[in-house]
Amino acid sequence: MKNLSFCCLLACVLLTILCGCANPRQVMVNPNTWQQTVCASSGWGWLGAPLAYKNYNNCVNNQKVLGLIPLEELEAKDTPRFDTLIDATDKKAARPEWQAGQFWEYSLSSGGTSRLTVQKIGSYNGTAGYNVFNANGRESFYDQSLGLMIVFGSGGVETEYDPALRPFDFPLFLSKSWNATGDMHRSGGHIDLSNHHEVKGYGRIKVPAGEFDAFYILNRSDYGARISELWYSPEVK
């Protein structure tokens, strides 16, 4: 019986060694420019798994030489970018109600400006919301919680999100976090999306349009830009 138990244990160990897998992954970020890259590798078995870790570690070390640091390290030491911090212990932001004709104009860090205009209050597939146009005349549809549902192209629906892409979860308040998952459907197929959002701070920011009190929201995503920042001002909506 002891020999049988030993043989079973040995078989399990050998199976683990031969069939082991490795799939390390690390988001690296430039703390000054927020340039992002992902170090990832995968391998199977007693040869593939160690090689995967070696390639992964080489990537991480190379990115550190270039000035990038792990995302978790950035989050631990990075503070929201406010001109003035404000106590937001009891501060909450309710869901806004947009009106036809409302618009917002932005100065882009890359230069120039962009503009969003609420063309009308409408519905899509039975969901109430807003038809919005950008500066280039491209139309999108947002639900009443400001979740992006549809982006229209010249031939009709170009991109559809199921459920709506949800960067906000009203009411907003300090330390609130939420996950937003779903599918992005395009003519060429679909992509699974997974995002994590957290309200990290509240304070006053200065922009060309003036000074505004705003919530600072940090987003971590499995697709596209791995991290992104949002400032939401209840005053501006």
UniProtKB/TrEMBL annotation:
Keywords annotated in UniProt: Lipoprotein, Signal
Signal peptide segment: 1-22
Origin: domain of life: Bacteria
Protein name: Lipoprotein, putative
Species annotation: Geobacter metallireducens (strain ATCC 53774 / DSM 7210 / GS-15)
Organismal lineage: Bacteria, Pseudomonadati, Thermodesulfobacteriota, Desulfuromonadia, Geobacterales
